[in-house]
Amino acid sequence: TYIVTDNCIKCKYMDCVEVCPVDCFYEGENMLVIHPDECIDCGVCEPECPAEAIKPDTESGLDKWLEINTKYASVWPNITEKRDPPPDAKEFDGEEGKYEKYFS
Ligand code: SF4
Ligand code: F3S
């Protein structure tokens, strides 16, 4: 499966939802997650994310993010259409420790 990681937080560009063939993105206030059981591993969303926040879960060190995607995909609502990203998205792109500071 693919998963959404830290740098999505407060960037939330939403280009990913437009390309997913199975609509498996779920929306929190500050970020999106992927439902790991619904993702068919097609990989098309990964290069679409301007924040490079989407990664295959086979990459090392992403256990925490797999847990977060799994947990919140079952409580947050599904999102299938891109909206405008936050106006200050660029200011947060690449900031360290966004999970600790802003996750919601
Ligand atoms: Fe959707 Fe494919 Fe991305 Fe999985 S890898 S979230 S199926 S676009
Ligand atoms: Fe987040 Fe990237 Fe999608 S910033 S909302 S994973 S396009």
From TrEMBL:
Presence of keyword Nucleotide-binding: no
Cofactors (names): [3Fe-4S] cluster; [4Fe-4S] cluster
Domain 4Fe-4S ferredoxin-type: 1-29, 30-59
Keywords: 3Fe-4S, 4Fe-4S, Electron transport, Iron, Iron-sulfur, Metal-binding, Repeat, Transport
GO molecular function, one term: 4 iron, 4 sulfur cluster binding
Basic and acidic residues bias locations: 80-103
Segments crossing the lipid bilayer: none
Pfam families to which the protein is assigned, alphabetical: DUF3470, Fer4
Positions of the UniProt region annotated as Disordered: 78-104
Role description: Ferredoxins are iron-sulfur proteins that transfer electrons in a wide variety of metabolic reactions.
Protein name per its UniProtKB record: Ferredoxin
